């Protein structure tokens, strides 16, 4: 931007200077030539009275004196062919003046001025002044150098001013971009300076307003999550008491584990909301995917027995470290298995596989023998064709992305939907 501004100013200033200085330079050359011509004409005309009133000797002395002091070549051509002063030939202009017509014209090597003079004998003499080209252009070169220096000075000043303006614009734009990148990275305390030039100050003010609105929305979200967590804890406490009152210890332990899972999910939601509002922080979360998948599939296997589902679990020997926290991975596995239980009929078989990935990390595959996804585009966040919230698949997708991986949908070997989570290795601090 700064370079383009300098090029634009340089081009514009150069055009203006050329349009102004070229005619001025030509005018100076014309004025110099006219000044030399007028000076020579005046000197030639000063000899008119001497030709008519003085004798030959005095006239000769006067012409020699004028010729010696004049930058032009001064001559007087008498009717008898005598030439006084500088040597001269009878040019067409001299012949014209001999017939009584004074004139000025350009000839080879300069400019000729002739003045017709009536002599005492009634014949006509000619006073002639020849101005060489170097006299016609005397002082023009110096004037042109002065104009060139003026042009260079004006161009330099314009470039310096443009550079300072461009530097200010670039600095303000760079700072504005840096603030926007900080906001995009989660640093909600970042604010842009509003004293930038022109519209950049307006944009900075709008960006600050947007950042303030984001902070306000996150605060409202945290308050909503906290309120929801407070409301959920009461029925969870009641459920825990009910579980502890069950006569079967195994059943009580299973229900209690489910209540603990809900409690952990609520706590995790609150922590995530707080983290979103507290700015960026280093992500060093990691866990053993093999342990997490075994534990979560063991939990869901109990429900699978109650619904007559055949579950095939193939988990590679660990450890299989992945770049995501245990709570996030548990939530992703629960979301995928929960979708199978929620959207396939009882008795539908499913399989869970976890294998190491090349280069580190792991690949988690969850497939079922259900009807699969409906035809059309893949479901987006908050949208579902089966009456659900549509967030389960998005939870798994975001978990994979936080681990530096991705989510893929396909056809399971069992005939239904297959979801593949690629989980990257832990990030180095």
TrEMBL record:
Record Pfam families: HAMP (PF00672), HATPase_c (PF02518), HisKA (PF00512)
Cofactor: Mn(2+); Mg(2+)
Residues of the Histidine kinase domain: 227-427
SUPFAM superfamilies: ATPase domain of HSP90 chaperone/DNA topoisomerase II/histidine kinase, Homodimeric domain of signal transducing histidine kinase
Residue span(s) of domain HAMP: 167-219
SMART domains recorded: HAMP, HATPase_c, HisKA
Catalysed reactions, semicolon-separated: ATP + protein L-histidine = ADP + protein N-phospho-L-histidine
Keywords carried by this UniProt record: ATP-binding, Cell membrane, Hydrolase, Kinase, Magnesium, Manganese, Membrane, Nucleotide-binding, Phosphoprotein, Protein phosphatase, Stress response, Transferase, Transmembrane, Transmembrane helix, Two-component regulatory system, Virulence
Record's bilayer topology term: Multi-pass membrane protein
Enzyme class: transferase
Localisation: Cell membrane
Domain of life: Bacteria
Major localisation: membrane
Annotated GO MF terms: kinase activity
E.C. code: 2.7.13.3
Transmembrane parts of this sequence: 144-162
UniProt region (Disordered), positions on chain: 368-390
Protein name in UniProt: Signal transduction histidine-protein kinase/phosphatase MprB
Species in which this protein is naturally found: Pseudonocardia humida
Lineage: Bacteria, Bacillati, Actinomycetota, Actinomycetes, Pseudonocardiales
């Amino acid at each position: 931007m700064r370079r383009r501004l300098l090029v634009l100013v340089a081009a514009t200033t150069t055009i203006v200077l050329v349009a102004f200085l070229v005619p001025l330079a030509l005018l100076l050359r014309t004025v110099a030539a006219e000044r030399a011509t007028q000076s020579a004409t005046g000197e030639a005309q000063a000899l008119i009275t001497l030709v008519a009133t003085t004798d030959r000797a005095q006239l000769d002395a006067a012409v020699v004196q004028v010729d010696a002091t004049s930058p032009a070549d001064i001559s007087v051509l008498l009717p008898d062919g005598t030439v006084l002063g500088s040597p001269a030939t009878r040019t067409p202009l001299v012949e014209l003046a001999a017939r009584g017509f004074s004139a000025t014209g350009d000839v080879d090597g300069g400019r000729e001025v002739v003045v017709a003079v009536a002599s005492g004998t009634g014949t006509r003499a000619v006073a002639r002044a020849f101005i060489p080209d170097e006299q016609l252009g005397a002082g023009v070169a110096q004037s042109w150098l002065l104009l060139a220096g003026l042009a260079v000075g004006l161009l330099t000043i314009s470039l310096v001013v443009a550079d300072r303006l461009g530097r200010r614009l670039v600095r303000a734009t760079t700072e504005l971009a840096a603030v926007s990148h900080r906001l995009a990275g989660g640093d909600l305390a970042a604010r842009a300076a509003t004293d930038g030039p022109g519209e950049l100050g307006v944009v900075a003010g709008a960006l600050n307003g947007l950042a303030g609105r984001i902070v306000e929305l996150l605060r409202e979200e945290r308050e909503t999550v906290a309120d929801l967590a407070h409301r959920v804890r009461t029925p969870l406490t009641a459920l825990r008491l009910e579980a502890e009152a069950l006569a079967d210890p195994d059943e009580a332990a299973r229900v209690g584990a489910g209540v603990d899972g809900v409690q952990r999910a609520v706590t995790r939601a609150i922590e995530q909301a707080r983290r979103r509002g507290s700015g960026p922080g280093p992500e060093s979360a990691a866990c053993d995917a093999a342990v997490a998948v075994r534990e979560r599939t063991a939990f869901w296997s109990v429900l699978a027995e109650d619904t007559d589902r055949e579950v095939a679990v193939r988990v590679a020997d660990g450890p299989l470290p992945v770049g995501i926290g245990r709570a996030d991975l548990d939530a992703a596995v629960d979301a995928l298995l929960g979708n199978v239980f929620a959207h396939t009929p009882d008795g539908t078989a499913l399989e869970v596989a976890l294998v190491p990935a090349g280069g580190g990390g792991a690949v988690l595959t969850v497939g079922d023998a259900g009807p699969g996804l409906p035809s059309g585009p893949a479901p987006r966040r908050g949208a579902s064709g089966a009456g659900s919230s549509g967030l389960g698949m998005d939870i798994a997708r975001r978990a994979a992305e936080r681990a530096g991986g991705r989510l893929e949908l396909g056809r399971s070997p069992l005939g239904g939907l297959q979801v593949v989570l690629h989980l990257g290795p832990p990030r180095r601090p």
